[in-house]
Amino acid sequence: MKKEAKEKLRLDKYLWSIRLFKTRTLAAAACDTGKVKQAGTSVKAAKSVSIGDEYEVKTEAKKWIIKVTGLLHNRMAYSEAINYYIDLTPAEEIDRTQFQAASFYTGKRPSKVGRPTKKLRRELDEFLGEEEE
After folding, report:
1. Which residues touch 78 (CB under 8 Å, ≥6 apart)?
2. Which residues constitute the domain of residue 34?
3. Nearest-angstrom CA–CA distance, 63 and 83
4. Which of 2, 29, 66, 112 is 20 to 30 A from 45, alpha carbon to alpha carbon?
5. Across the strands, what pairs with 48?
6. Which tens digits make up the pLDDT trace of 16-47?
7. Per-residue b or e along 41-73, where b marks 16 or more CB atoms closer than 10 Å to that residue's CB
8. What is the CATH number of the domain that holds 16?
9. CA 38, 42, 47 angle in degrees (round to 5)?
10. 7, 71 contact by CB (below 8 A)
11. 34 belongs to a structural domain
12. Nearest to 20 by CA among 102, 70, 84
């Protein structure tokens, strides 16, 4: 009987343990907001995971399509965790996310992130043609 209880594994815990999400709370939130789907239908965090299930998962980094190959109850090293699922994500999706990451940096200072340094303020004043008083 204890063996059967051990075989039940919540989806949010599984997604956290295979390292798709940094915390279990983030995994549960993704399930609640419809970012985790099975056969095109949103699934809840408490759904039991079975070997052979396929899930479509949207994380901040990319869109995953995974197939469950084993149940992992505890979080472990990435090199071990990748043995518990197969990544079925199409190559064009992987290429698209890599392109977005490469083309994202524009060289500009991000807006609304901290104050400019004194040097940056001087350069900006010089560029705008403003004189010091």
Report:
1. 19
2. 2-94
3. 19
4. 2
5. 10
6. 999 999 999 999 999 999 999 999 999 999 99
7. eebebebebeeebebbbebeebebebebeebbe
8. 3.10.290.10
9. 70
10. yes
11. yes
12. 84
In a domain? residue 130: no
Q: Do residues 2 and 29 make contact, with C-beta atoms less than 8 angstroms apart? A: no
Which are the contacts of 3, defined by CB distance < 8 A and separation ≥ 6? none
Helix, strand, or coil (residue 98):
helix
Residue 106, both tokens: 């524009």
Helix, coil or strand: residue 9: coil
Cα–Cα distance between 27 and 41 in angstroms, integer?
A: 17
In a domain? residue 74 = yes
Between 56 and 116, name the one with better pLDDT.
Answer: 56
CA–CA dist 35, 57 (Å, integer): 6
- Give the H/E segment covering residue 11: helix 11-17
pLDDT of residue 130: 73
Element (H, E) at 64: strand 63-68
